[in-house]
Amino acid sequence: MGILSWVTLSLILGMRCFTSSDASFSSDGLPGTGKKFLDLAKRKELADWMVGIRRKIHENPELGYEEFETSKLIRAELDKMGIAYKHPVGVTGVVGFIGTIKPPFVALRADMDALPMQEMVEWEYKSKVAGKMHACGHDAHVAMLLGAAKILQQHRSEIQGTIVLVFQPAEEGGGGAKKMLDEGALENVEAIFGIHVAPHITVGEVASRSGPLLAGSGFFEAVISGRGGHAAIPQHTIDPVVAASSVVISLQHLISREADPLDSQVVTVAKFQAGGAFNVIPDSVTIGGTFRAFSGNSLIQLKERIKEVIVRQAAVQRCNATVDFLTDEKPLFPPTVNNPDLHPFFQRAADDVLGTGKVHDMQPLMGSEDFSFYQDAVPGYFFFLGMVPESSQGNLETVHSQYFQVNEDVLPYGAALHASLATRFILEHQKGKSDSLTGGRHRDEL
Ligand SMILES: *[C@@H]1O[C@H](CO)[C@@H](O)[C@H](O)[C@H]1NC(C)=O
Ligand SMILES: [Zn+2]
Ligand SMILES: [Zn+2]
């Protein structure tokens, strides 16, 4: 952020008349503050307001870097709350500021984008856009962060530091986090927290772990070209379908024979597009997929070998191949690695909001998150927030399912956790407890 923007922000904040708030969280120490935030967030007025925001966004899903209406809605709400912000950051992104605009700076993140898929849930607020759906809960993430903003803004006079609200575009493969970072969204920030709703954890409970939580990921697309012709006269063709099939099989050996079995990795070919007729051998086949690993080195190694295997295996069948890792639109995501020093901090804060026994450790997942870009730059912590109703027998539909549904009871928990993590970070910082919070910066360069 340039000096000019700082001046503008300070002016905006300076001119505002500070009102007294209804609940204090700094006077009587930390314990119980989290519960207070949860009570505030569960108040009918605020909870209903978050539900309304979430439904509005759900009805009008927008894909990565196209979140124009979502961004507009966020800015309109921040305006109503009197919260200063920067826009655009990363095309549609918004970065809001609550507090003194002085250190310490702590950031809270929500992603805004939807997925290119058709919603199959029949309900009043079903997606109104054919082929687009909020199937990953990012609509809920925005509502929770706005809910937290509302609570925090009411308490702004007690915040001896700055809470940075990061509303980012394009989490689903587009690397919106990277763009936000490149455009300075985390300038001065000492720690960042991110929440993802989880359809396999009970509502009011959270899960995460210290260290690697989610895999790093990349994508690839390859065109395997031969020479098409009549399906009954193969000797006059160079068949790319058979060549591509061999490629798919050979790629499996990267994991089964080359990777360390104790270093979890995935290579999946998810796309296979060949000809359209029963009796025509096509000129070319396009395949595509993703690869995952928990270390930057393994990820780079996979990337190199995927290219080599595709090109050389295609050559065995007399075909040529080109491989594209699409890194312009889909940058390689680093692994999501939680800062080990923020882990006990998170546990204390979440315990205080949710009560004991609600904060769980979990196994790492092969999914990935572009939150990892933030964690490469500053200490960060990412965690999952449960949505399964207590009465429910099984889990909810998984994220990225056409039947995915958010249990809106999750919203107050997310808002309270956001508010609590940020204020506690600032308070502990003031109390001089923070040296250990930011000391053990954990990096895994790609
Ligand atoms: C592969 O590339 C070489 C060199 O450009 C070319 O001569 C050959 O015809 C190509 N083969 C196929 C099957 O496209
Ligand atoms: Zn997703
Ligand atoms: Zn997501």
TrEMBL record:
Coiled coil location: none
One Pfam family named in its UniProt record: M20_dimer
GO molecular function: IAA-Ala conjugate hydrolase activity; metal ion binding
BP term (GO), one: auxin metabolic process
Cofactor: Mn(2+)
Residues making up the signal peptide according to the UniProt record: 1-23
GO CC term, one of those recorded: endoplasmic reticulum
Superkingdom as given in the UniProt entry: Eukaryota
Residues binding Mn(2+), per UniProt: 136, 138, 172, 196, 400
Protein name (database record): IAA-amino acid hydrolase ILR1-like 4
Organism: Punica granatum
Gene that produces this protein: LOC116199673
